[in-house]
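Protein Entry — a single chain follows
Fields — amino acid sequence, structure tokens
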Amino acid sequence: MNIIFLFLSILQLSTAFFNEQCPLGWISSGEWCVKMSIQPETYHKAQKFCESEGGQLFHSEIQTEVDDVIDILDDLYKRGVHESTWIISLIYHTPRAISRHSDGNYSIITTSTSATYPFICSLTQSGRRMLNFQQMLLPKGAPKIVSSSLSEIYFHPRNGADFVPIPCSVEAQPPTTITWYKNDIQIIHSSSSSRSSNESYLLSGGTLLVPALSSLAYSSFHCVASNEFGKIRSASVLLKPAFLDSFAERRHDVLPLVGGGARLECDAPAHQPKSFSFTWLIGTTNRVLHQSPRVFISSDGSLYFSSVTPDDDEKYACALSLSSTQSGHYGPFFRLRVGGAQPQSPPRIPSHLPQVFPETPTVEDTVYIECFAYGNPVPTYKWTRVDGHSLGPRATITNFGRILRIDNVQMADSGRYRCTAGNSLNAAHSDVVLTLKSRPTVVLPLYDRLVSTESTFHMDCPLSNADRHSTIEWFKDANPIVPLLMKPDERSRYKVDDSRLTVSDTRLSDSGIYECIISNEIGVSISSAHVFVKDAAPAFPLQAMPLKVYAIKGSTLNMPCIYQASPHGHSKWTDAGGNKLPHKGRVREEKGILIIQDILPDDEGLFFCSAHNRLGRAHSQVHLIVVDKPRIRVKTNKGSTSEFSNLTCEVELECQHECPETLISWSLNDKPIGHKNKKHMKTKIHEHRKHSGYTGYTLNQKMDLEIPHSEKHLGRYACSSVIGGASIEFPSKLSPPPPVSVTVSTKNNSIHLSWKKPPSHREPRDYQDDGVKGYLVEIRTRSDRQWRSIPRDLITKSEAEGFFLESLTPNNDYQFRVRSLDASSLGEPSTPTEWIHTPSAAPQDPIEDLNWKIIDPGTILVEWKPIEQDHKSGENLRYRVTWSESSIDDQSSEKPHVLTHHLESKQPQAIVRLNSTEGCRAVALAIRPFNDEGPSPVSTDTVALISSTGKLRAADITSAVPLNGTHIHLKWEWVGENECQVAHAIKISCKAEKRETVTAMVSSQLYEWTLAALEPETLYSCSVMPYNNKGSHGEPSHPHKIWTKQYPPQEAPSITKLSLKPLSDDSGYTTILEWSAVDLRNDNSSDVSAGYKIYIYISETASEAVVLSMPNSRLTSSEKPSARLDGLRLMYMYTIQVAAYNDGGIGPLSPPKTIRLGTASTIDSSSSPSVFLSVLLVSLYVLLF
């Protein structure tokens, strides 16, 4: 039988996939998954809790792994979890803990079994795998609030004013429906029109546009996002009016102070928000008073003179500006009456100074601490901390020493500060206490969880230890959880204990999205989780348990019983005779894990895992096969040439009945040789099997590796298989010793990395130092702890023993290490450097997805994709929006556009109010991100065309192409030369006789669309029609006639054969697929537009398939279609389906057919025994000594 060849390139996926990710609720820490429990417990209760979670108390003797956990603890400490001691594992029957000392360093200490502390759990490999399988029952796609806006927004109320945008930033799949509420009353819904029934509100995407009317002052708004998994609400945003009253009409004159000097108060009028932008006018409104060592203008508006002179006898007026209202006023002029020059006097600090601005400073603010002293001669100033700490790198002294500025202030900056003022006569000092408040912090975020009915679950939303002012509110599906307001039967099940929510006796109706909203006067933080209540009887999913396990004689087997169930229930192991295994002894069961120590040949046989809960039970069997210890070696081949060297990994194994596939793989310097390296390295596999005596076989498998001669291919090569491994240095010789004294320092934006050669007495005796040819620098970050070679484009200058680096990610933590490199090998790494933090920098990412929308002829909503969502280059990221207006005729001018207007926004949208509303205008827009370090080097520009006439543009269809029986693709273009005519949307309509009209409304910025839900073999008349944002429409285009394609195949094929077959040249095997023929509704057998599609799923992923097309013209027999599948891998479980297709689309899928390649049932009956042995199923649970 002739069979068409189909070659696959399928992404390799092994059970290691589940070991590479941490389950929900666990934190990745290098090779570990850890969970911090803040609730203090004794050692034994902590260990019991960890075991219930599938893990154990954290235990590692490797310092780098301990350091990774310490980094997590230090991060928690900085976020406000001021716990100094965390319980970990035992040592010599004594509990240990990681302790933080007063100097900020950590060490491991011993503690008692009765002491109660927070603790750290870590997952065992089996626990990690079990939880990942269990969490596969959780549906994904529940909505989450991705950013919280400010708890209050100031706006300037006025008639005909701007809109105030309030975003609703949500992530979800499937998409959500957005509903907005004012003062907890619904006002607008995204499934309705973009304009609410109350015409004053607009909705653009998820952003609510609120008119800046005085009637809306002190109104609160919040959004609710919902999909099939539940609802989530945002925090409430309070709109506050910004205003500036007028100054008093006149003021009395002022005299100097008796002790010398003078103070002139601003007497600022009432205004909101609080302003710190004051200036003083002297003599006239055109003359501004400048500060000097003798003259000081405070942030509260007061004007100080350390001493006065006759020249100071002038008229003065205080001026105040308010950015929120884009306005300012100045007060009445009044005179400072100076009688004469003042005598010398020692410094004298007023009792209310120093003072802090803003008056209620918060973490990450820029804080100004002001000091001033009267005195003659003019005093000089000095700042210190009373506690003895230095002022720190973020502190700067400005304004002739009178102001201490602290950028990005942190809790560590809290404390008592002292200002000392001195002159030639004496000195004086005064203290002020800097007390900071902070936005509430979600210390440990909530996470999605699976819950069974009739159970109890807890959700914790702990506050920072220092947070005494925040309030916590709990919500379920956007409704507040208030037990007192619930029905009696519900009230007893819900318990809110401040930061802990407990739900007992769970029901299916308890499924939903739970939220913890923490708020204080500074801001709001939100954490949410999807709780899915589901009951499920135990089941063993595909790839959870192996059918066969090969274990080496004398080794130890640890086999977990992995299954899915809700509630999780219990499991037990039994032997082939059905006898339950004991909890002690060489062969035993411990907490669902089958343990066999010092494995003997007699242990070979079947073992059964049984899982049960109140809904049912399930079983899985594992066949244990014991093999002798294999012989594994790596050697160089004689076939090496001047350009290539050959290595061979040889595995020899004796087995009684069945020999496992060894699955050899190569690694270089402990890193797998991936697809990129395989472009330069070639592998070949040779296999030989022979009878060993009367009862067994000997398997001898070799894999050759061809290596090009290149420095990047030097180092330690290791081959590994599921039954062991070996390694070799290539070429075989001693590697160079690692460098010592590796140090790193920063200067400006450059990093200098330097090291020294090791002392000669520490070098290996047989190693020649003059053979070192260079060095390899490796780098990692705190967020990604995997070591990688540093990219060459980061190195700006090389030294004999050092590098200068630039262009590292700003505001990030890095660590370095260095390896020596000679002509043929790569040395061991040096000791890592200390962590170094790169300086903050201006944003580098450009703005993308810039869009604009006309709200009315004088207002534009501008939106763009936010940048730096995962990592901030610097503090206080915001966006500068600049624009200019011109008539459409001015656009043809060659003069450059000068963007004359600007505003700033912290959100990725802004309302632009235009000066002119007449005619056709072009508005040039530019968006540039910036932060405290400066602006981005590039801006993103666009031009918005606005018309006050409201005349709608006209469009015409240029092409219509049928894609299949139900879809057509349409293209259109605008008709006419005036691009300034209005069009906010395009309505597509396709009509057919005796059929429903199919329509779609799309953005006017699109020029093509694929229309679905049409009927096959039907003539449609299609047109497009423009709409504006008020619902008015223009004239429809000329109709365009188009036929949809034929009906797709109506029948589903049936897979009749799926098996392995040896190749004719005995070089391996292939997979044969045969299925039944169906009516393709296509009479042309040579047409490539009809045939079959083959869908191949790897069962562990089962979300996306590799799709192969088999045209009817390529089939050997259209009555008995078949295909040969090359590229499927041994040991994997595959699910395969087939569907017929033609021009009209794809027909129904066949029932799925599953195959695990390598089992006896998958071998074609015509296959030889040798082939059967070469494809036996192998589990990754094969164990080593």
